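Milestone M4 deliverable, item 7.
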Amino acid sequence: MGDHSHSAPPASSPRVGLTWHRSVKFSAVGLIGIGVQLAALWTMAGLLGWHYLVATIAATETAVLHNFVWHIRWTWADRPASAGETLARLVRFHVTNGLVSIVGNTVVMMLLTGLLGIHYLLANGVSILACALANLALSELWVFRHEWSQCDLIETRLLDDTGSPRRC
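Output delivered:
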């Protein structure tokens, strides 16, 4: 009958699924993004005198765009995309990570700074951590999802008309 054992995907196949390595990369980008966000917030609220909620939204958007660029180039670099797909990823990133971050940061800042009087930089650090896990899951599952081909949905080796294995 032929060998029906499952073979590993070719070395050139994109890595599918959330890996420890990808989680570390996501976290590293996120840590740098925290620095970007806090620096932007401090500049806008502390130096320029913007209201802390307006500054929070603008600083969060700055970090979201920063993180997106690094996720494309590093975290999910094994999932290249056309210009059109990159634009679609940017939209998905904003619908997920951007929305979670902007809404989450704004709500937490209103509670911690507005209601409890906690310094805006400390409150923002807390709000960033509260949004991080949701953003990782949404990025892996939807934003940078692997685009499956028909070959990915079936075994990597098929039998041709003579019963010999062939590549999909």
